[in-house]
Amino acid sequence: MNEEKKYLKLNDIESYKTGFKLSNYIWDIVIKWNFFDKDTVGKQFTRAIDSVSANISEGFGRYYKKDKILFYRYAKGSVFESLDWNEKSRVRSLTTTEQYNYIFSELQKLPKQINELISYTNTKLLK
Q1: Which of 3, 5, 62, 114 could form a disulfide with 67 if both were Cys (CB 3.0 to 4.6 A apart)?
Q2: pTM of this prediction?
Q3: At CB < 8 A and 24+ separation, what contacts does 2-5 make?
């Protein structure tokens, strides 16, 4: 019997999927803001949330375990930055309560998902 080896794909990674979906959700909100709101909060919020899935993607493409994990940690830092921008958006009445709550709940999932990715990487890769 020929057993086929299954390789992990980027779209199999839960934290990547969560971050990517959330970045597009936030984009759809921010794009409707006025110029000042977009220029001050919107650009920063969008960059922070975009860098979650971007850093996971970049780490996934690296060869060495330490390199991969470094980028996954950058992604986790961007999650916490995004939490701050989400709070600012709420306080400044840029997002609705429903939008804020959804973003907050998705951001709350990400540190655990990223930690699981780091653990997986640590156990599955030799170098």
Answers
A1: 62
A2: 0.91
A3: none
Quote the number of domains for the chain: 1
Chain position carrying tokens 């086929």? 4
Is 98 a member of any domain?
A: yes
Q: If you average pLDDT over every residue of the chain, what do you get?
A: 94
The pair phi, psi for residue 84, each rounded to 5°, is -65, -45
Residue type, position 43, single letter: K
d(CA 19, CA 83): 13
Please write the tens of the pLDDT for every residue from 49-73. Answer: 999 999 999 999 999 999 999 999 9
Q: Is 68 within a domain?
A: yes
Instruction: Name the residue range of residue 91's domain.
Output: 52-127
Query: In angstroms, rounded to a whole number, what is the distance separating the alpha carbons of residues 85 and 56?
Result: 20
Q: Is residue 92 part of a domain?
A: yes
Segments in the chain forming alpha helices (H): 14-30, 35-37, 43-60, 65-91, 97-124
Count CB-CB contacts under 10 A for residue 65: 16
Structural contact between residues 52 and 103, judged by C-beta atoms closer than 8 angstroms: no
